[in-house]
Specification:
249 residues, alpha+beta, 3-stranded antiparallel β-sheet
């Protein structure tokens, strides 16, 4: 499926811990680094530009294994494509965004991903068996789903099955944390959630250009929106030096 929307199958009370994902089911960066492909990247001494590339590489490795991977079921319910995410847009679709500040962000993202992919292929030749489009798919799986948390006092991040299915809304319905004592990821209700209601998490306060480029959606009436405005000072202005100093030119 390209989209999963978790709904409550019963009444969930406010402050109730209603979902627990054990650490053994979390695909962390540490697992990725210690994997076969992770070790080959480390041995190559390639300087990974983004920590997301560790899990992305692991995803590609495990997807290739098919049913032999312990992550087979989880990978099977990840989106097969990200056609709604702008970095996969064709030229006709891009034309519809003419004048948007998203254009530069899209181009920068693709350039960054291409640079990372080329670097990995050069450092680890067998990496070439995965296409650039496959690499972009894996990186999007990570950027759209990753959580950061602390395990045993060490800051890490990872993909958390079930927890990464919730869609964005503010105010959010739930909060999450890693429970050190129970050795797992805990999801807690912030309000009474009634049977058949969709349950939402928050991706944070972001401009629609970030939501659109990173996730492929926008939020109506988004108070966090930003606009890029360009100004120029007339160098013949007698107050030019003062204005330039205050503007940080």
């Amino acid at each position: 499926p390209d989209s999963i929307s978790p709904h409550a199958n019963c009444h969930i009370q406010k402050d109730e811990d209603f979902c627990y994902i054990p650490v053994s089911c979390i695909m962390t960066s540490d697992i990725a680094r210690n994997s076969n492909i992770g070790q080959k990247i480390i041995e190559s001494k390639y300087n990974v530009r983004s920590k997301h590339s560790w899990i992305a590489s692991f995803l590609l490795q495990e997807r290739e294994k098919g049913e032999k991977s312990i992550w087979f079921d989880y990978i099977g319910i990840l989106p097969r494509t990200y056609e709604s995410v702008p970095i996969f847009f064709n030229e006709e679709q891009k034309k519809l965004l003419t004048g948007s500040i998203c254009i530069k962000k899209m181009d920068d993202r693709v350039e960054t991903l291409r640079s990372e992919y080329d670097g990995l292929c050069e450092a680890v030749p067998e990496y070439r068996r995965w296409s650039f489009n496959s690499f972009m798919w894996a990186r999007l799986c990570v950027i759209t789903r990753i959580f950061g948390f602390i395990i045993d006092g060490v800051k890490t991040d990872g993909l958390v099955p079930i927890a990464d299915f919730f869609h964005h809304k503010r105010p959010r319905d739930i909060k999450w944390s890693f429970n050190q004592e129970k050795r797992g990821f805990m999801i807690t209700a912030l309000r009474d959630i009634y049977q058949n209601e969709e349950v939402f998490i928050s991706f944070g306060r972001k401009c629609n250009s970030r939501f659109f480029v990173n996730y492929g959606f926008i939020v109506e009436n988004n108070t966090a929106n930003e606009a890029l405005m360009t100004f120029a000072l007339n160098k013949d202005d007698p107050e030019y030096d003062t204005k330039a100093r205050h503007l940080g030119f």
